[in-house]
Design goal:
- The structure holds 2 protein chains of 2 kinds.
- Chain A is α+β, with helices and mostly antiparallel strands.
- Chain A has 2 domains: about 60 residues, Arc Repressor Mutant, subunit A (Orthogonal Bundle); about 80 residues, Glutaredoxin.
- Chain A is about 45% helix and about 15% strand.
- Chain A contains 7 helices and 5 strands.
- Chain B is globular and about 75 Å long.
- In chain B, a hairpin with a 2-residue loop joins strand 3 and strand 4.
- By secondary structure, chain B is of the alpha/beta class.
- The chains are: A alpha+beta, B alpha/beta.
- At the A-B interface, helix 2, helix 4, helix 5 and strand 5 of A face helix 1, strand 13, strand 17 and helix 17 of B.
- The structure holds flavin mononucleotide, iron/sulfur cluster and FE2/S2 (inorganic) cluster.
- The site of iron/sulfur cluster (SF4) has 14 residues of chain B, from helix 18 and helix 20.
C-alpha cells in the first residue's frame, strides 16, 4: 500500500474500530475505497481489533465477496441459481465464456472477471446478471452479446 | 403551466427494466411542452410482467400503462394530458382491477406500488404507524400475547411460532437484549424481503421497533446480503428518516432503540441464524450448535430475537387490526398470509400475497399463466434450493406448512420456481448437491465432504455406471445428510435430490423401481 492508501485505511479504522463486530464493515469499507483488500492491511486490522492474523485471514477467505487481488476492469456476475437456470442461465454463462475467451473466475489481462452468483433477487424476471454492478433481467443471448460489446467499447 | 402527477416504481428490478430511462424521457417530454411534471418514484406492485408500470390518478382511481419504455414517453404524455382515463396502446385501465392483483389478500404489501419508500407522510397516509401507536398503549406482555394469538409463524423457513420466541426473549433476564432481522434472502426464487426493504422499509422498521418494545431490546441490526445494494441504501435512508421523526433513537417516552444495517459478504450459510450472528460479530459464518438458542444466548451472548423480514413486517398489521383479524386468514396451523414469489419459467411472474391454502395449480397455472416458454409445466421447486421438486400430480396440494411437510416438501420462504418439460431434474439434483458443497460452512463432514461425493455419485448414475450400487449409495448419503447435519443446509439438501429421484427417475435414466431406496 502507498501512503495515501494507508491513510485511507487508518481513517476507516478510526471510524469503525470501536463498533461491536467491526471486522466485516471494515473489510467492506476497505474494499470499497481501494477496490480490494491488500494483504498488508491484515496486521493493521488484527492489531486494531485485537484479533490474531489467522482470524482476520480466516474471515477474509471465508466470504466470497472479498478480493485479495486488484479487480479486473469489468466484472460480469451471472446468476446460476435454480430460477435463472430453468430460464436459460447456462446458455448465458457459456456464451460469456466463449465471447470473452475466459473461464469462470479468471481475469484475462486484467480486463474481465466472470463469476457465477446465486440469486440476485430478480427471479420473477429470470435470467438475471450483473455487469459492472448494474442489474440486467430477462437477458437473452442477443442482449448479452450487445451488453458485452458496448462494455468493451467503453474500456 | 399545467401540472401532472405520475407514479413510477424505483424497485431495482424495475430499474433494470428501464424505469430510470423512462423517468428521464418523461421529464424531457414534459419540459418541452411546458408541463410541470411531478414523478413520484414508488415501490413496485410486484406484477413484474407489467413493469415498468406507469400510473396516473383519474378521479381517485389509479390507471396504469404497462411495459412503458423511454421511446413511449412522448405519446404517453399526450395521452395523459388529455382529460379522463389515458387512451394509449399501453393503457391497461384501473390497476386494482387486474385479476392477478384483485385475487390477492395483501397485508404486508398493502402499500406496494402506492407509496414512496422513504416517505413517512406516504407511509402514514396509507395506514402505516398504527401498529406502533397501539403497541404503545399496551403492556409488553400484552403485545407478546397479541403476536402469540395471531398464530404468526416465522416466515424465514422453519415456521416456528413467533409469539413463543418473543415470550422467551422477553422473560430472559439480561441487561442488554437484541432484535436482529435476517435479511439474507439467499433462496433462489425469493425476492419478497428485497421488495419490503426497497419498497416499504418503514414497515420493517415499525415491526422491529414494536418487537424491541415488547422484548426490551435497545439495539437492533438488519443483516442484508451484499447482492442487494439498493435495499441497503434504502434502509439506511429510511432509518435516518425514522430517527429524524423520533421513531428511532431515544423517543419521546424515553425509550431507546437504535437500528443499524450490516452487510453480508456473499455466503449463503449466513442466512442460517446462528451463522448470521457470528457474521454480525465479525467472524466466519459458521453454524453454532444449539442449545443455547439465540432467544437466550444470541448476539454477543445476549438474548436475541431473530426474525425474517416478512415476520417483522407482519407485526404492525397484527397490532393495528388485532390478532383475531390476522388469525382469521389461512388454513390449519398456517395463519395469516404469505407473500408467494412466483419465479423461473413463468408467464406472470411476481409477488402474490395470499392467505395460506390455495393450491399450486391455482398459483402457477391460473394466476401465473403457466410457463413463459409456452411449453408444458413439468414441476415446481417450492421453498428455495433446499425445497423439494413438486410434480404436477401434487399441484392440488394446498399451500400450507403441514400439507407440504406431509408430502416431504416444504413452503420455506414462499418461493416457487416453475420449470417446463425441457428441464432435466437429474441435472437439477446434481446442482443441489454442488450448491451444498459450494456453500457448506464446513462444520459437519457429511455436508462438507458428502455433498462433493454426492455430485460424483449422481454423475455416475447419469452415466449409467454401476447404477444399482450408486442409487443405493445416493440414498444412503442422503440419509446421512438428513440425520447427521447440524443445520438444514446439509439436513435438507436431500429434499431436492430425493424428490427429483422419486418423481422423475427417467431424468436419471432410471425406471421407477431402480430409483427406489
Ligand atoms: C442454510 C440456511 C439458510 C437460511 N437462510 C435464511 C434467510 O436467508 N433468511 C431467513 O430469514 N432465514 C433463513 N434461514 C432460517 C433461519 O435460520 C431462521 O430460522 C430464521 O431467520 C428465523 O426467523 P423467523 O422466525 O422469522 O423465520 C436459513 C436457514 C438455513 C439452515
Ligand atoms: S450442515 Fe453444512 S452448513 Fe450446516 S452446520 Fe453442518 S457443515 Fe455447516
Ligand atoms: S435465481 Fe437468479 S435472480 Fe434469483
Amino acid at each position: 500500500m502507498n501512503e495515501q492508501q494507508q491513510q485511507v485505511v487508518a481513517a476507516l479504522l478510526a471510524t469503525w474500530q470501536h463498533q461491536p463486530g467491526a471486522l466485516l464493515p471494515l473489510l467492506h469499507a476497505i474494499q470499497d475505497a481501494l477496490g480490494w483488500v491488500p494483504e498488508d492491511v491484515v496486521p493493521q486490522l488484527s492489531q486494531a481489533l485485537n484479533l490474531s492474523r489467522a482470524e482476520v485471514v480466516g474471515v477474509i477467505s471465508f466470504y466470497h465477496d472479498f478480493r485479495t487481488q486488484p479487480p479486473a476492469a469489468h466484472s460480469l456476475r451471472v446468476c446460476m441459481a435454480e430460477s435463472c437456470q430453468v430460464a436459460g442461465a447456462e446458455a448465458l454463462s457459456a456464451l460469456a465464456g466463449q465471447q470473452l475467451g475466459i473461464r469462470e473466475g479468471e481475469t484475462a489481462d486484467g480486463q474481465w472477471q466472470v463469476r457465477l452468483v446465486y440469486c440476485l433477487g430478480a427471479c420473477a424476471c429470470s435470467p438475471a446478471l450483473q455487469l459492472d454492478g448494474q442489474l440486467h433481467v430477462q437477458v437473452t443471448p442477443e442482449r448479452l452479446t450487445q451488453l458485452l460489446a458496448s462494455s468493451r467499447e467503453g474500456v | 403551466m399545467s401540472a401532472l402527477t405520475l407514479y413510477l416504481p424505483q424497485d431495482s428490478v424495475v430499474v433494470a427494466m428501464g424505469a430510470d430511462a423512462v423517468a428521464d424521457a418523461l421529464q424531457v417530454a414534459a419540459a418541452t411542452r411546458g408541463v410541470a411534471l411531478e414523478l413520484r418514484r414508488t415501490s413496485s406492485r410486484g406484477l413484474f410482467w407489467l413493469e415498468p408500470l406507469l400510473e396516473v390518478e383519474v378521479a381517485g382511481v389509479r390507471h396504469g400503462l404497462a411495459a412503458v419504455q423511454a421511446a413511449d414517453a412522448d405519446s404517453v404524455l399526450t395521452a395523459l394530458l388529455a382529460a379522463g382515463a389515458p387512451m394509449h396502446p399501453k393503457a391497461i385501465g384501473p390497476v386494482a382491477e387486474i385479476p392477478q392483483l384483485k385475487r390477492q389478500q395483501r397485508q404486508i404489501f398493502s402499500r406496494a406500488g402506492l407509496t414512496r419508500p422513504v416517505s413517512l407522510d406516504d407511509y402514514q397516509a396509507h395506514g402505516g404507524g398504527r401498529g406502533l401507536q397501539r403497541a404503545r398503549t399496551l403492556s409488553a406482555a400484552a403485545v407478546v400475547e397479541e403476536v402469540l394469538q395471531s398464530g404468526l409463524r416465522g416466515r424465514g423457513g422453519a415456521a416456528f411460532p413467533a409469539g413463543i420466541k418473543w415470550r422467551t426473549v422477553q422473560q430472559a433476564q439480561s441487561a442488554s437484549k437484541y432484535v436482529v432481522c435476517n435479511a439474507d434472502e439467499g433462496d433462489s426464487g425469493t425476492f419478497a424481503d428485497r421488495m419490503v426493504m426497497e419498497g416499504d422499509p418503514l414497515l420493517l422498521i415499525e415491526g422491529m421497533k414494536i418487537a424491541a418494545l415488547a422484548v426490551g431490546a435497545t439495539q437492533g441490526y438488519i443483516y442484508v446480503r451484499s447482492e442487494y445494494p439498493q435495499a441497503v441504501a434504502t434502509l439506511r435512508a429510511a432509518i435516518a428518516a425514522a430517527e429524524a421523526a423520533g421513531w428511532l433513537g431515544e423517543d419521546a417516552s424515553g425509550q431507546t432503540f437504535h437500528l443499524e444495517v450490516r452487510v453480508g459478504a456473499g455466503a449463503y450459510i449466513c442466512g442460517e441464524e446462528t451463522a448470521m450472528l457470528e457474521s454480525i460479530e465479525g467472524k466466519r459464518g459458521t453454524v453454532r450448535a444449539k442449545p443455547p438458542i439465540p432467544a437466550l444466548a444470541g448476539l454477543f451472548g445476549q438474548p436475541t430475537l431473530v426474525h425474517n423480514v416478512l415476520s417483522f413486517a407482519a407485526v404492525p398489521g397484527i397490532l393495528a387490526d388485532g390478532a383475531a383479524t390476522y388469525q382469521a386468514m389461512g388454513m390449519g396451523r398456517s395463519r395469516g398470509t404469505l407473500p408467494f414469489q412466483l419465479a423461473g419459467n413463468v408467464r406472470f411472474g411476481g409477488l402474490y400475497e395470499l392467505a395460506f391454502g390455495p393450491t399450486l395449480h391455482e398459483l402457477v397455472n391460473e394466476l401465473g399463466g403457466g410457463t413463459r416458454s409456452g411449453r408444458p409445466v413439468k414441476a415446481a421447486q417450492v421453498g428455495g434450493p433446499l425445497g423439494a421438486w413438486v410434480p404436477l400430480s401434487d399441484f392440488d396440494l394446498p399451500l400450507d406448512y403441514e400439507a407440504f411437510a406431509a408430502r416431504q416438501a416444504m413452503l420455506g420462504h414462499g418461493g416457487v420456481v416453475v420449470a417446463d418439460d425441457s428441464v432435466n431434474l437429474g441435472q437439477m439434483a446434481r446442482f443441489a448437491m454442488a450448491f451444498c458443497a459450494e456453500e457448506s460452512c464446513g462444520k459437519c463432514t457429511p455436508c462438507r465432504i458428502g455433498s462433493t461425493r454426492g455430485v460424483e455419485v449422481i454423475d455416475r448414475i447419469l452415466h449409467k455406471q454401476d447404477t444399482h450400487a450408486n442409487v443405493a449409495l445416493l440414498h444412503d448419503l442422503c440419509d446421512t445428510l438428513l440425520h447427521g447435519s447440524l443445520c438444514a443446509l446439509g439436513g435438507m439438501t436431500p429434499y431436492p435430490v430425493q424428490s427429483a429421484l422419486r418423481h422423475f427417475p427417467q431424468d436419471f435414466g432410471l425406471t421407477p423401481e431402480e430409483a427406489q431406496p
